[in-house]
Design a protein that fits this description.
2 strands, 4 helices, elongated, 108 residues, mainly alpha, two-stranded antiparallel sheet, disordered N terminus, 7% strand, 63% helix
Amino acid sequence: MRCLMAGTMILPSGMQAFANSTAGLMLRLSVLNFCKIYVAMLVLRITIMWFPNINPYRQPFYSMIQLTDPYLNLFRGWMPPIFGIDLSVILAFVVIQAVIDTLTIPRF
């Protein structure tokens, strides 16, 4: 199998052709925009939890909690709370930011 360089990653020639196609570019940009919107939702969700006078179980906040909790629950068991503060959110932000950085098209 012949491999070519794509940025800093080595991809097989079939994947390289898809990555350079219009469909591949659109898929990459769509996932990138989804991740950016998801980060904004995570920031808003974490910010809302700091204010006790806002009821997070009313709409539209409850829908946002339902969308963001499955991703945050992946990291909750890895880092224990320190002084009652859940720091696993930091790890969740690091992972999604790494995905965003990977999908970002480098400028020349």
